[in-house]
Amino acid sequence: KNYLMPSVASMFIKHSVWKKIGGFTESIDGSYKAEDISFLNNIKNFKFNIIYEKKSKVYWIINFSLVTTFKRFFEYSFGTLKAGHFKTWHQGLLRNILFFILLIFLTYKVSLLFLFFVIFLLFLKSFSYLRFTNWFKEGNLFIKLNYIFLTTVLFFLIDIASILGFIKWIILRTPRFNN
Q1: Best CA proximity match to 103, nearest among 125, 120, 123, 124
Q2: What mean pLDDT is reported for the chain?
Q3: Confidence class for position 152, pLDDT limits 50, 70, 90
Q4: What is the DSSP string of 43-85?
Q5: What is the pTM of this model?
Q6: What are the φ/ψ torsions at residue 64 (nearest 5 degrees)?
Q7: pLDDT of 108 above 50
Q8: Residue 83: other Cβ atoms inside 10 A
Q9: Using alpha carbons only, what angle is made at residue 70 by residues 67 and 73, rounded to the nearest 5 degrees?
Q10: CB neighbourhood size of 118 (10 A)
Q11: What does the pLDDT average to over 67-83?
Q12: I need a surface site. Which of 48, 49, 72, 82 has the fewest CB within 10 A?
């Protein structure tokens, strides 16, 4: 609840809610992969009561194949945009990318010290996600640094895949955002 958006994979949903919303939206050609976001938006629009369990734990497994992970987020990025969910993911992503481009420009024009700031922010992003997990809290310094480094690499890969999915969406002139 505090740092990640809700996920259908980690929810108990009453059958009456499912029926009233009408289940997942399906694409006509079966290409987009953002049915869960549409479903969650419908839950919010119908103003159903959502209860968060503070003690719940959700384990989300990412395939450790970099190629598989890249393809997954590339297609998910494109599908999310095609389904009209620009604000859900890409608006923040593009804002962050533009900020990092500005910092890299400042590195080039002003001082190499800005490069250290860029690297620090990338590691800080990873830390902000990892700090809530028990396995991170309980690990020694070496384990924590290892997790931060690997998570930073993974986030960088996901961001590149997401940007390329955004570029594909623009090039193919798919329908524009509806939110």
Answers
A1: 120
A2: 82
A3: very high
A4: HHHTT------TT--------S-HHHHHHHHHHHHHHHHHTT-
A5: 0.74
A6: -80, 5
A7: yes
A8: 23
A9: 150
A10: 16
A11: 88
A12: 49
Query: In the structure encoding, which two tokens stand for residue 166, read together?
Result: 């955004």
3-state class (DSSP) for residue 135? helix
Please state, in angstroms and as integers, the Cα–Cα distance from residue 179 to each residue in 80, 86, 140, 156, following that order.
Answer: 12, 7, 44, 26
**To 10 degrees, what angle do helices 113-130 and 141-171 make?**
100
| Residue position matching structure tokens 């919303």 | 21
CA-to-CA dists, residue 6 to 1, 21, 58, 164, angstroms: 7, 17, 11, 25
Closest CA to 159 of 84, 95, 85: 95
Question: CA angle 59-60-61, nearest 5°?
Answer: 115
The residue among 24, 41, 1, 4 whose CA lies nearest residue 128 is 4
Helix, strand or coil, per DSSP, at residue 177: coil
Contact 155, 125 (CB under 8 A): yes
Place of tokens 């949903």: 13
For residues 27 and 1, give the distance between their C-alpha atoms in angstroms, rounded to a whole number. Answer: 28
Written as six digits, the tokens of 149 are 């480094």
177: left (phi over 0), alpha (psi -120 to 50) or beta: beta
Q: What angle do CA 56, 58, 60 make, to 5 degrees?
A: 175
Structure token digits, residue 21: 């919303």
Query: 91, 60, 46: which is closest to 154 by C-alpha?
Result: 60
